[in-house]
Amino acid sequence: MLPRGRPRALGAAALLLLLLLIGFFQFGGDVEYGRPRGAAALDGEPSADRGGHNRSDCVPPRPPLPKCELLHVAIVCAGPNSSRDLVTLVKSVLFYRKNPLHFHLVTDTMARNILEMLFHTWMVPAVRVSFYDAEELKPQVSWIPNKHYSGLYGLMKLVLPATLPPDLARVIVLDTDVTFASDIAELWALFAHFSDKQVIGLVENQSDWYLGNLWRNHRPWPALGRGFNTGVILLRLDRLRQAGWEQMWKLTATRELLTLPATSLADQDIFNAVIKEHPRLVQPLPCVWNVQLSDHTLAERCYSEASDLKVIHWNSPKKLRVKNKHVDHFRNLYLTFLEYDGNLLRRELFGCPSPPPPGAEQVQRALAQLDEEDACFEFRQQQLTVHRVHVTFLPHEPPPPQPHDVTLVAQLSMDRLQMLEALCRHWPGPMSLALYLTDAEAQQFLRFVEASAVLSARQNVAYHVVYREGPLYPVNQLRNVALAQALTPYVFLSDIDFLPAYSLYDYLRASIEQLKLGSERKAALVVPAFETLRYRFSFPSSKAELLALLDSGSLYTFRYHEWPQGHAPTDYARWREAQTPYRVQWAADYEPYVVVPRDCPRYDPRFVGFGWNKVAHIVELDAQEYELLVLPEAFAIHLPHAPSLDISRFRSSPTYRDCLQALKDEFHQDLSRHYGAAALKYLTALQQPRGPA
Amino acid sequence: MLPRGRPRALGAAALLLLLLLIGFFQFGGDVEYGRPRGAAALDGEPSADRGGHNRSDCVPPRPPLPKCELLHVAIVCAGPNSSRDLVTLVKSVLFYRKNPLHFHLVTDTMARNILEMLFHTWMVPAVRVSFYDAEELKPQVSWIPNKHYSGLYGLMKLVLPATLPPDLARVIVLDTDVTFASDIAELWALFAHFSDKQVIGLVENQSDWYLGNLWRNHRPWPALGRGFNTGVILLRLDRLRQAGWEQMWKLTATRELLTLPATSLADQDIFNAVIKEHPRLVQPLPCVWNVQLSDHTLAERCYSEASDLKVIHWNSPKKLRVKNKHVDHFRNLYLTFLEYDGNLLRRELFGCPSPPPPGAEQVQRALAQLDEEDACFEFRQQQLTVHRVHVTFLPHEPPPPQPHDVTLVAQLSMDRLQMLEALCRHWPGPMSLALYLTDAEAQQFLRFVEASAVLSARQNVAYHVVYREGPLYPVNQLRNVALAQALTPYVFLSDIDFLPAYSLYDYLRASIEQLKLGSERKAALVVPAFETLRYRFSFPSSKAELLALLDSGSLYTFRYHEWPQGHAPTDYARWREAQTPYRVQWAADYEPYVVVPRDCPRYDPRFVGFGWNKVAHIVELDAQEYELLVLPEAFAIHLPHAPSLDISRFRSSPTYRDCLQALKDEFHQDLSRHYGAAALKYLTALQQPRGPA
């Protein structure tokens, strides 16, 4: 019996073993996420860190990072200030990301203008951006009384499932005031932890707000315990749509608003009320994914243990000025990306093939065709450079539509910032200024404006940041950016070192009207240019005073000593006596400062660095048959300054003149192609020997 | 029977289960490292990524990251250029690190001076630095003929086991030309993969160099296959010492040098020869830990697959100018840290308690005692700020010792860079200049010097970078940095906007000798100061010419219009006629430019921003009984410039004058404390009503 019995016993044991192993693996399967499926987790430490300390031989893996999977991110953004925040957030995401990204931006018109241009010129590979009109969403949330500083825009996160494309199943939703300190794919990977019923991933609120005991009669919206913070959300859009999310939140909100006067924390109150009612919808996320730096934050409980913070949330209305024992640490992380050179993020993703951003291929091809041995290589390269452009960097009131209004257009870099206050005092009208800055300088500029009472008070000055790249100053690209952003029918094309006569703004508007500029007369109004070589200088309050200073040798006509042909055609002798506008003829090298309709020809962007950049524009105006009319009461005075770094760097370069000559030649060739025989005169004028003007 | 049989069967089953589970766990234990213990791995992908794709429920974990473990890093570094590289490397390490670090730096004297000051002023928490004298190690490697550009210093990695502290068991060794893109603890964690016999972890060489077929008669040193690259090394120092590493490599090197004329790749040739002989010593590391961007790199095989690069190695002699299809990508990563604001890395490590860096606690305490509501809070804060200082930013020849030599000392920020060339033309002697810059500006400065023939040619100008922090210009801290770095017995304490007379350097040395300055006479030699308000200006070549310009109104005595008392005591009328040096008396607000022995009193660092910073220094000289001797042939001329941003920002501030007054008062209190009744005269002088000087 034994011989037969043994196999039987062994068979039974084998069966038992099999069953046990199956059971073990199933148990192991549940261990994978460290908790029974569907149960909530609210861990201080992300699973990877626990993995490191886990001494068992079979560790729970961290959720797989999706290699090359397209990740979707939705952000609501309105106005210039939020747009700046969004850029910093996006920089932090791009810095760590290894996946292609698709940003879904719900924006007002202002933010859309800013961000569309920004992303278009940023040209980051493997980044797509879609815009959704916040205006259209307003009716869906405007019925909710709301006291939060984010206004209606905060509430728009509620309507994302209906707003985003119907085939979009998952999205990460972010507030503009968060900063990433890790790869966003790790956050995306947490979708894998959702049970079948869970639709929304959130981090617990790190304050006692929802406990309702902050002050007497503090009545927050209902929430599970401390509630959840909605600065970082994982949304299963597919399941939300299926579950009838829209009715769900509207029903809850309507009911709560019967007893509560308004939302205090916008969408967050409503999300929490819904979750309180349907706790199974939520997948709690590890606290490191939304470290909240509000005024009375409890975040230290989270970050004091974690070695690895993933996302910082500046959710105090004080933002970076919030008081908090460790705020310097977090501020440093934020400043890292605030000042980070966004151009460095234009790097491709290895191992994730993706189409190049629009326009990039063309630029790449043109760059590849350049000859590095060409003496003018730097010029060619600079001409082809696509600069990242952030228009309306600061809040700005568009000027009210007026038929004869005129915007002062100019460009500058950091070394001319101190001109802005004086310029504001001389020109009360609208200005459109392009600033050539690094990302860090843009922040210095911001602080400079904030610290200046004169500048802060002005609503009609629009600042457009063009980010530095390459060794040569792209003067005409800058002028074109400022020109394109001017919103009045006329523009005064000036330079930053000139202070206009105090009366110029009024006088120009009157002249435009009298001369019927643009409508009946195709003309450029010339503002005669003067200069002082002295720092301490009392600005003339009238033409008579100016003439007296000229006679006493305190003022000169502009560049009288070094480049008289630049302004000689203005005919200063005639101007002295003139009572009415007079017409002058174009001549070689003429480069007056002019007032023209906004739709005037653009500047030729091939002129980078210094030299001939305005001359070419005046040639273009003349070729297009603009009359040149000198205004008898107009003037602007150039203030002295040390030569800029760019000028000194390149004036000394021996190849510089040769390259400028090459650019001029090409400009004339293109001119002939455009205007045919009519353009001959410019070439002839150039070749004529000049008298001792 | 059944009732009794069941319990027994269950008992047997339970025992079986127990045995099975134990077996399972043990099996799991071996799986932990993904391969049998002791076997080598040479993976393109780090194990974490493979883990991500593993779909089984129990995945091999990545090696545990050692939370709060102190990690040791050794780097050999010589000279100013390598020191700059090292800083960039360290910034990249610090950016991602979460562990305390101990850097072991093998340096020459120059690098030690630079780096000791840098780390001391950087004050990064949880970073220790030890220095080892490269000079002492030279005899141990100088017998090896070597053709590599790193010279003797490259070979010093071989002697680290004997050089580093005997109780140090493990160290990561890095070349200065690597950049981290990940947490160095992940690299440290790879020590856990070493078998009992392995002593050194290396990445395979990513070129065909060691295959020996690059050109005819190319005879590389012996290596296993492609060999290994020594830009990134994990060293088990304990085992190396035990295994007799010193004899081992010396034996191998000596033997190979019988047939090979010299090492071509320094230490790397010898490491490879030893490994070829003892292949069991090496633990190959994943290629992402040393992505080599040499000229004919095969690195693409590594990075084209990996989504995650860990360390970039610029191991071409061309460094960033290396040609490579994807070099822009890598360059961006490098530039990220090159331009990164190192101040932002002064953040503490949460969850890893570590002693504050030396001096930091004191500063923190003082800062904590400040009253944020105090109107002068910004001044107080700025005074307490410890600026990161990088002395000798560019290569510099110390001046040969000469008993009467004099160094021009000055400080500047970016907006005065264009003064440097003119200054070099006027002053052929040594200069010590402190530059107040951001990290990004320091790189612009570097390019500016490289692009200038005049500046590149000068070996006796030392540039010291003081990194910007805070809103006020720390003018006296900058002066003190420049002063402390002057290497001649005398210094000319000037300002960057002044051009000295062409003859001044020679004349000062002669005067110092004649007047026996310092040795027999405790005096400050006054260099009379003038100014021009014009840009275009022909510099006088003699005192006679200068006087003519003064008479014609082209020149003025310095600040004649706004602050005559600053220089009136120089007595310009007397100077006009003087043939020999003459003594003048101190008077209130006197601030001449002077020549003094190098050991003169330092500037008072409490004066930040603008105003009274030089005045206080002259008071200090007078209190210490320096004679003030005006030199009859000396002069310097101030060139005009636009007011700096800092000046315009604070001149307009209403609290500025009040705070300056408070600083003055405190200065006088300290003066009384130091000099007793003798200091009364300064207070009295200040309180006297002044005539219309």
TrEMBL record, chains A, B:
Reactions it catalyzes: 3-O-{(1->[3)-alpha-D-Xyl-(1->3)-beta-D-GlcA-(1->](n)-4)-beta-D-Xyl-(1->4)-Rib-ol-P-Rib-ol-P-3-beta-D-GalNAc-(1->3)-beta-D-GlcNAc-(1->4)-O-6-P-alpha-D-Man}-L-Thr-[protein] + UDP-alpha-D-glucuronate = 3-O-{beta-D-GlcA-(1->[3)-alpha-D-Xyl-(1->3)-beta-D-GlcA-(1->](n)-4)-beta-D-Xyl-(1->4)-Rib-ol-P-Rib-ol-P-3-beta-D-GalNAc-(1->3)-beta-D-GlcNAc-(1->4)-O-6-P-alpha-D-Man}-L-Thr-[protein] + UDP + H(+); 3-O-{beta-D-GlcA-(1->[3)-alpha-D-Xyl-(1->3)-beta-D-GlcA-(1->](n)-4)-beta-D-Xyl-(1->4)-Rib-ol-P-Rib-ol-P-3-beta-D-GalNAc-(1->3)-beta-D-GlcNAc-(1->4)-O-6-P-alpha-D-Man}-L-Thr-[protein] + UDP-alpha-D-xylose = 3-O-{(1->[3)-alpha-D-Xyl-(1->3)-beta-D-GlcA-(1->](n+1)-4)-beta-D-Xyl-(1->4)-Rib-ol-P-Rib-ol-P-3-beta-D-GalNAc-(1->3)-beta-D-GlcNAc-(1->4)-O-6-P-alpha-D-Man}-L-Thr-[protein] + UDP + H(+); 3-O-[beta-D-GlcA-(1->3)-beta-D-Xyl-(1->4)-Rib-ol-P-Rib-ol-P-3-beta-D-GalNAc-(1->3)-beta-D-GlcNAc-(1->4)-(O-6-P-alpha-D-Man)]-Thr-[protein] + UDP-alpha-D-xylose = 3-O-[alpha-D-Xyl-(1->3)-beta-D-GlcA-(1->4)-beta-D-Xyl-(1->4)-Rib-ol-P-Rib-ol-P-3-beta-D-GalNAc-(1->3)-beta-D-GlcNAc-(1->4)-(O-6-P-alpha-D-Man)]-Thr-[protein] + UDP + H(+)
Pathway: Protein modification; protein glycosylation
Species of the source: Ursus americanus (American black bear)
Coarse class of the protein's main subcellular location: Golgi
Protein name (Swiss-Prot/TrEMBL): LARGE xylosyl- and glucuronyltransferase 2
GO CC aspect terms: Golgi membrane
Record membrane topology: Single-pass type II membrane protein
The keyword Methyltransferase is assigned to this record: no
Keyword Ligase tagged: no
Family statement: In the N-terminal section; belongs to the glycosyltransferase 8 family.
Chain's role: Bifunctional glycosyltransferase with both alpha-1,3-xylosyltransferase and beta-1,3-glucuronyltransferase activities involved in the maturation of alpha-dystroglycan (DAG1) by glycosylation leading to DAG1 binding to laminin G-like domain-containing extracellular proteins with high affinity and in a phosphorylated-O-mannosyl trisaccharide dependent manner. Elongates the glucuronyl-beta-1,4-xylose-beta disaccharide primer structure by adding repeating units [-3-Xylose-alpha-1,3-GlcA-beta-1-] to produce a heteropolysaccharide. Supports the maturation of DAG1 more effectively than LARGE1.
Swiss-Prot/TrEMBL GO biological process terms: protein O-linked glycosylation via mannose
Cofactor: Mn(2+)
InterPro entries in UniProt: Glyco_trans_8 (IPR002495), Nucleotide-diphossugar_trans (IPR029044), Xyl/GlcA_transferase (IPR051292)
Record's subcellular location: Golgi apparatus membrane
Coiled coil: none
Keywords: Glycoprotein, Glycosyltransferase, Golgi apparatus, Manganese, Membrane, Metal-binding, Multifunctional enzyme, Signal, Signal-anchor, Transferase, Transmembrane, Transmembrane helix
GO MF annotation list: glucuronosyltransferase activity; metal ion binding; xylosyltransferase activity
Signal peptide: 1-30
